[in-house]
Write a structure and sequence with these properties.
- With 77 residues, this protein is mainly alpha-helical.
- It contains 5 helices and no strands.
- Helix 1 packs across helix 2.
- The model has no long low-confidence stretch (mean pLDDT 92).
Length: 77
C-alpha cells in the first residue's frame, strides 16, 4: 500500500514544495495515492504518449502542471 508521502517524494524531484502539495492533493482528490502514482507512469496522449514522469525528466514539469490545472478547470485530457 502506498501513502501520500511516497507520491510527494517522487514529485519533489521535479516540483517546488508548494507545487508538490498542490499536485499531490489534486491527484489524490481524483483517486487514491496508489492510483496517482500509477497515473504518473501512464502514457499521456497529449504528450506524445510520454508518461508524466518522462515529461518531467525531460524538463517539462511545468507543462504537466499546466495540463493538470486545465483538467481541474474542466478541459479535456
Amino acid at each position: 500500500m502506498c501513502d501520500g508521502l511516497e507520491l510527494q517524494r517522487l514529485l519533489s524531484l521535479y516540483y517546488s514544495k508548494e507545487e508538490v502539495i498542490y499536485v499531490s492533493s489534486l491527484l489524490i482528490s481524483w483517486s487514491s495515492s496508489e492510483e496517482a502514482l500509477s497515473w504518473l507512469n501512464e502514457p499521456i496522449p497529449a504528450f506524445g504518449h510520454m508518461t508524466a514522469i518522462e515529461a518531467c525528466e525531460k524538463g517539462l514539469s511545468e507543462h504537466i502542471l499546466t495540463y493538470l490545472i486545465q483538467i481541474e478547470n474542466g478541459s479535456f485530457a
